[in-house]
Design goal:
This protein is an alpha/beta fold. It is about 40% helix and about 20% strand. The chain has helices spanning about 1-15, 30-45, 70-80, 100-110, 160-175, 185-200, 220-230, 245-255, 275-280, 345-350, 350-370, 380-395, 400-410, 410-430, 435-445, 450-460, 470-480; strands at about 20-25, 45-50, 55-60, 65-70, 85, 95, 120, 125-130, 130-135, 135-140, 145, 205-210, 235-240, 260-265, 285-290, 295-300, 305-310, 320-325, 435, 460-465, 465, 485-490, 500-505. The strands form eight sheets. The chain has a five-stranded parallel sheet with strand order 13-14-17-12-18. It has a three-stranded mixed sheet with strand order 1-5-6. It is globular and about 90 Å long. The chain starts with a helix and ends with a strand.
Length: about 500
């Protein structure tokens, strides 16, 4: 009786479960099976492609996270979603497991017929062709999945300039307890907020460096508040890479997962100009080698990049890619201070309202603003400047990009190069020297503590306290032909090894 009852229960349960789609495997028609499985995955609405890799959107609270699907996960998924059948020796169709060849084809096939390419996840209305996209779900034209309900946000159609000013005041109120060094730094924090709400739909945007004089000034706290305007989920927190190879692997791995925000928290080094990070900030896509593989992958770069650190600054090529927000607490015990009004809790609780305030400022400028042709243009970030920077200037705020402009016009690197060239010229005249000679002769000279040696050690060519010949050679190659104070580095004359010399304008 017990086994009979169990059998009845099992039968009733099966009646409640809808039948799975059946995929029959026919010799010579694996392509049909692959594309039928792909079609069903596409209909579910949570499966997409990123650089030929299969990904899925995983619900997380009020939003979604993007995950790259591996072989094992896809195998289990195909078992759950479909009934696979194959003919036995009698010619009858019998149930089987999905073949690994089908799994691999679904995972790595470059010719997708049904699955769409995912370029990002938006947690609020975003701009496309200067109009806000407010429809939830996947947008085939933009490639963006909208994980929001447009009814949760304020009306953006009839926004006035007066509305924009009032809502700017409300955003500034949430930042009132932060001790910004200058009004321009507060403006830079506001432009970071406007960038956060639009970043998914912006092709390019600079990174933001939240800098401070001492620990405990609220750098990470401010970064988390800014991140909330991009996503209700925690940002992707990681360390800033220390080497170019590490940067290439890290940037691609992160961007394939479509994080709305990447936070380099508590940076111990300056913003170094690694190629992968440079591309992530000045190109809509980046292509790097996949970790543990010989193949490459391409990912959209529409994530907001934030960084925090004490007296951390962007250097060299990063100067034109990073807006700095500087905090300067007046207290000697900044780490002991508390925020009487918790702005993070407030923004998190009423996130949709605060995001609406930021969107309203942008929309009001598009409807009523007039471009100021006198402001300094910023190469690569023209659209960002118009949509995020100029609305704040229009409302009377200091230029939020002034730190970036000052960084670009800073000639510290050229000053160091100029001193280096002058001492090189004094030491060697017009003689051609190899890198090895350049970094070793000063040591063997009668006066070992030569100014040239000291200057070389101040250049970005040292590693573990000594001059790295490879880094020195790269420095010379990168500065070949750059004129400073009438001097320049050029190829030298040598029949054996690569040589260099310093020439004047007349030579």
């Amino acid at each position: 009786m017990q086994s009979s009852a169990l059998a009845v229960i099992a039968t009733d349960t099966e009646a409640l479960i809808p039948p799975k789609p059946v995929i029959r495997l026919v010799v010579g028609q694996d392509d049909v099976a692959v594309y039928e499985a792909e079609r069903i995955l596409a209909l579910i609405g949570l499966y997409y492609v990123v650089s030929c890799q299969l990904v899925r959107l995983v619900p997380n609270g009020t939003s979604f996270q993007c995950e790259v699907i591996n072989n094992q996960t896809l195998y289990v998924l195909l078992c759950e979603l479909f009934e696979w059948q194959i003919k036995n020796h009698k010619g009858d169709w019998v149930t089987c497991n999905p073949p690994l060849r089908i799994v691999n084809a679904l995972l790595h096939n470059q010719d997708r017929k049904h699955l769409k390419t995912l370029k990002g996840i938006a947690n609020q209305p975003y701009l496309h062709n200067r109009s806000f996209v407010t429809t939830a779900g996947f947008n085939a034209e933009t490639g963006i999945y909208a994980a929001f309900d447009d009814s949760d946000f304020l009306d953006l159609i009839n926004v006035t300039e007066e509305d924009a000013r009032f809502r700017l005041m409300q955003l500034k109120a949430e930042l009132a307890e932060f001790e910004f060094e200058t009004p321009a730094d507060l403006s830079a924090a506001l432009v970071a907020i406007l960038t956060a709400v639009l970043r998914t739909g912006l092709p390019l945007a600079p990174a933001f460096n939240i800098n401070a004089t001492v620990s405990g000034s609220g750098k990470s706290f401010l970064a988390k508040i800014i991140a909330l305007f991009a996503t209700p989920l925690p940002p992707y927190v990681t360390s800033y890479p220390t080497k170019a190879e590490e940067a290439s692997k890290l940037i691609l791995a992160m961007l394939l997962e479509k994080p709305p925000v990447v936070l380099f928290d508590d940076m111990q080094t300056d913003w170094k100009p690694f190629g992968a990070i440079n591309k992530a900030l000045t190109s809509p896509t980046t292509t790097e080698r996949v970790l543990g593989s010989s193949r490459t992958a391409t990912a959209s770069t529409n994530s907001l990049f934030l960084g925090t650190g004490n007296n951390v600054v962007p250097i060299k090529d990063m100067r034109r890619r990073v807006v700095t927000i500087r905090l300067a607490p007046k207290s000697d015990a900044a780490s002991l201070r508390t925020f009487e009004h918790d702005p993070y809790k407030q923004v998190a609780r009423y996130r949709n309202a605060f995001v609406s305030f930021a969107l309203s400022i942008i929309q009001a400028y598009l409807l009523h603003g007039k471009r100021d042709e006198t402001i300094t243009p910023i190469g690569s970030y023209e659209e960002w400047s118009e949509l995020c920077r100029e609305p704040l200037i229009w409302l009377g705020e200091p230029d939020p990009a002034s730190s970036l402009i000052n960084q670009v016009t800073d000639n510290t690197d050229n000053e160091a190069l100029g001193v280096f060239l002058q001492e090189w010229r004094k030491f060697y005249i017009e003689k051609s020297v190899t890198v090895r000679e350049l970094i070793s002769v000063p040591h063997t000279h009668s006066n070992a503590k030569t100014p040239l040696l000291e200057i070389i050690q101040e250049l970005p060519v040292t590693e573990r306290g000594s001059v790295n010949p490879h880094m020195m050679g790269h420095y010379l190659k990168r500065h070949r032909g750059v004129r400073v104070n009438g001097l320049r580095i050029e190829d030298g004359k040598s029949s054996e090894r690569k040589a260099w010399c310093v020439l004047t304008d007349d030579e």
